[in-house]
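thread from #wetlab-drylab

HS: before we spend reagent money on co-crystallization trials with nicotinamide-adenine-dinucleotide, can we at least see a predicted complex? here's what I'd submit
DV: go for it
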Amino acid sequence: MASSLKGKTAIVTGSTSGIGMEIAKTLAGEGCNIVLNGFGDAKQIEQERSNMEKQYKVKVTYSAADVTNNDEVKKMIDDAGQVDILVNNAGIQFVAPVEEFPVDKWAAILATNLSSAFYAVREVLPQMKKRKSGRIINIASAHGLVASPGKVAYVAAKHGIVGLTKVVAVETGTFGITCNSICPGYVKTPLVDKQIKDNAAKNGDSEQDEKNKLLDKHPNKEFVKTEEIASLVVYLCSDAAQSITGAHISIDGGWTAE
Ligand code: NAD
């Protein structure tokens, strides 16, 4: 599989942390040139970027684009030149009951977790269609398929991204492009660590109790590993996955089978 991705260029949004960083490194390991994106400490990001270049011997650039801003997304894609693989991964979370959910948090989650993918997809499609080739992978969530209390904006955005994926797939079917969403269960990243901490403070119990509450959703009682998601991305980018499009693929320890 390695050689088929060699020399391709992949943009991974939200790749300064967690799942996105793992996907970026794994694609770099397969020989892809990478555009990193996301927030964080400039020095640390530069260190990560140059380490990746040295380790994987590929070109790694960084775009500071805020993916909620269409102009910044457009510039990131213009600067990248040819984009063979787009991974829409940037995301945020906030938890509160519907009637207490702050309106600004709703708007921020919809913008970061859903509109961002629309902006990026509409920008890369013309060049992918012209070349009759491309791979678009949207990191959705188990929450793209089922609900949990307190997550009205996140669940709405993730269901939205599963829908967006299907439309893109049916519009690009004859263009050698595939578009799929991956629906992970809980993955131990800064996004989930924050949720565990916040919930422990709110509910007055321990972080271990809150961790167990999340893992109760997983019949296998394990967090999903970032490496498992990155491997699935590599597979979806390979020629072997040419006929997989419009799919939402669960990687959730059995959560959504229940
Ligand atoms: P994370 O907090 O570790 O990383 C999020 C990344 O998104 C960071 O790089 C951050 O800088 C970036 N980001 C946030 N807002 C941005 C913006 N406006 N513009 C550009 N970049 C921005 O989170 P993670 O757990 O790695 O989550 C990555 C994706 O996976 C998200 O879409 C999340 O919803 C999804 N997901 C996570 C889990 C989980 O359990 N961690 C489960 C299912 C799906």
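DV: Residues 13-14, 16-20, 37-40, 66-68, 89-92, 112-113, 139, 141, 184, 186-187, 189-192 surround nicotinamide-adenine-dinucleotide (CB under 6 Å).
HS: ok that's useful, forwarding to the group
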